[in-house]
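Chapter summary example: a protein plus protoporphyrin IX containing FE.
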Amino acid sequence: MQHNGFKSSNRIVQWIEYRLPIFSFLDQQVGTQYQAPKNLNYLWNFGSLAGIALIIQIVTGIVLAMHYVPHGDMAFDSVERIMRDVNYGWLIRYIHANGASMFFAAVYIHIFRGLYYGSYKFPRELLWMLGLVIFVLMMATAFMGYVLPWGQMSYWAATVITNLFSAIPWAGQSLTEWLWGGFVVGTPTLTRFYSLHYLIPFVIAGLVILHIWALHVHKSNNPLGVEVKGPKDTIAFHPYYTIKDLFSLGIFLAIFGFWVFYFPNYLGHPDNYIPANPLQTPPHIVPEWYLLPFYAILRAIPSKLGGVIAMGASLAILFLVPWLDTSRIRSGTFRPIFKQFYWLLVADVLVLGYVGSQPPEGIFIHLGRIATAYYFVHFLLILPIVGWLERPKPIPSSISESEAGTTQEASGRSETGT
Ligand code: HEM
């Protein structure tokens, strides 16, 4: 039987396909009929890894939810019970906790890949912005998840972050109390965080479908940043990229297993094994590693409202990157000046992360302010100016031409359409 170019001799597949053409759909989207650029490197594997990390978080999270008790008096003990008494509860919990780190690691590499190869440029701006909405929701989900064990870090992180809303002029205090469901962080706060922590990953899953839909309209960008010109530039997604994705999944799971089985608490904070105590503030309140750069920006401004605005702006600015980058050339490979500033930005974000992990005193105050200022300078000044002034290297006219070594001077609108 053949339907929409899809062939199968399996009678069950034929029966389903005739009534619901799901097999031909998958074949067109992730199968033999989907033609992807043939030169994608391993950095293009992180999208599928992020997708698998999301599935792992949802599956382990649902099992944890069967045993977790969202109540201020019982949450901490219920987590201890999961660790000690529930069959393989320790494994499920460690997978979920370290899975969050693996998920963020995959997504950070995915974002920085996009920044280097100009994947945010025309016609993939909306794809980029959908990714950023996913990223913001991931941060909210991870923050609320960290509150659930109701340890000291959970409690005080919730207090610090929810208190940020009190910086909003006039309505701030009422808004914060409305968020808390009381006059301090307590059981009502915990139950609403639990509810949202369960809900948002499914919203993320829906957005991932839109993200991939948008991706499949114009297909992937590639390391050269030139559009696919014809069948000579592509190969079938299956079996070539499915097997490549499976290979990277093996490595990803090996690293994941390394954390889970050898250093399950390394990325966590020991204070979170102390039950929440509203009467005792821990000496240093630090978020998980993946939130540290944004935490550093939040603390870089001496006023609470200013910090909240700066942190919001540091995320908002990423939505404008497709328009702030004025270069006609997509890929950083052909942009000698951009490339150097790109690595400076990477270093700057690492510095911000380090500063976020340190107490806000002495040198870290200055370092945090300089790194925050540079973050904004990169996007608001360097990106547009370098785009205007830089003389790019000659780009290949197509992917297959690049193999033959033919290049052309970067010209006009043809490559990025901008
Ligand atoms: C749950 C999180 C996410 C999942 C599951 C996901 C999934 C994917 C997949 C499967 C691809 C195609 C394979 C690849 O290019 O790696 C992709 C491409 C892309 N994603 Fe994501 N993504 C996520 C988050 C993000 C975020 C946070 C951003 C940006 C801020 C983003 C921006 C992009 C862009 C620009 C592309 C096209 C890349 C290119 O073709 O060069 N994604 N995504």
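Key point: The radius of gyration is 24 Å.
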